[in-house]
Amino acid sequence: MSIYTALRAGVSGLSANSSALATISDNIANVNTVGYKRTTVDFSALVNAQNADTTYNAGGVLPTTRTQVSLQGSLEQSRSPTDFAVSGEGFFIVSENTSQLSDGSGVLFTRAGSFTIDARGYMKNAQGLYLQGWPVNSDGSVVTSPTSLSAIEPVNIAGVGGLAEPTSSVGINANLRSSQDVYDPLTQGAYVTGSLATGQITPHFESSLEVFDSLGAARTIAFGFLKTGPNTWVVETYARPAANAPANAGGRLAEGTVTFNSDGTVAGVAGTISGAFTVAWATSTGAASQDLTLDLTTGLTQFANNYGITSVTANGVPPGDLVGLILEGDGFLTAQFSNGRSRALYQIPLATFLNPDGLKPMAGNAFRTTLESGLFNINSANAGGAGRIQSGALEASNVDLAAEFTSLITTQRAYSASSRIITTADEMLEELLRIKR
User: Fold this and answer.
1) Which helix (H) or strand (E) holds 368?
2) Residue pLDDT, tens place only, 52-78
3) Rounded to 5 degrees, what angle do the CA atoms 208, 214, 219 make?
4) Strands 169-175 and 290-301, how do they pair?
5) What's the fold here for domain 179-314?
6) Which helix (H) or strand (E) holds 423?
């Protein structure tokens, strides 16, 4: 009986070491696979019941395959900004298709972060798995859930564009020449509101600047200054061409008076130009009316120098095109636009597990939950031990070639030794058969 159990023990040794050789082969073949996790075989002895103390029934060996998911590979720099790596214990949430993961079906987890944008605008990795994220609302808020997949969706940037921002405030840093002669209404005609806008009176100083309407189109508005008394100036702002704002003659938008102190600083601003005024663009432009606030108190001076504009500050931007994506350390995927603006599109969540080594390996270098791994917990980056997401980096495989080649040698020797068990047991059985002759 013991000889036959020795044969079976040898066969189990061959089978176990064959499994070990297979895992070593996979590890060596995937040494350069992004996010690959090393697989090992653990051996455990099979113990048979013994009939007597004078005999022994060999049980053999049982191989158990284990994937070292929790062992992180080294992070390596990449040239692509959409290559992501997790420095921590978290996993990217991915799926095999672009359907909503409301019921948990089709959800996978991976550390392979070599993502690119496909023809439909979806972000997927080299294995064809689609990245999931929490969408960022227009007000910048994010609806998250640590256990529900209904709050996440496939990351898609198709149709993303930079919105136009209308100009709402303008500031002028300029100097009005203090030696300018006061306007004489007796010889040059009486000043009435709108005379500068219509051109009936030529301003002593005029300057123009561009603002952006609600559609992002550049519109020109001008400022005319006329000295009407000591330290007193009339100022009007008007659209150019005047047809862009036909509500008042000459395209006039606002008017008022600026007075200066004896040291050349602004003493006060009066009139509609002193606060916010509404620009009613022509209906033909398609732009909505917008409120503008003009700051004439901060940078306006009246010195003996010549007229001049030092600087003009104005907010608002034209529409922009998507020029790049950047992933912040807190997991926010931010779009950058050609108009200089940026906008957060998604927050990339990370899933964590109580026992990541219990995850089941799937095709595409991904994993699925099992009873051994426990349920997933969804966290944002830098929270709950999920780790930090690094852009422009990839996680290399956690395979150590030196260790694999060492295991390859020992496995080969163990396989040869198991085959010797079978050979020796066969010779003993042959000797037993000769007793009869």
Assistant:
1) strand 366-368
2) 666 777 777 888 888 899 999 999 999
3) 20
4) parallel
5) Tick-borne Encephalitis virus Glycoprotein; domain 1 (2.60.98)
6) helix 401-434
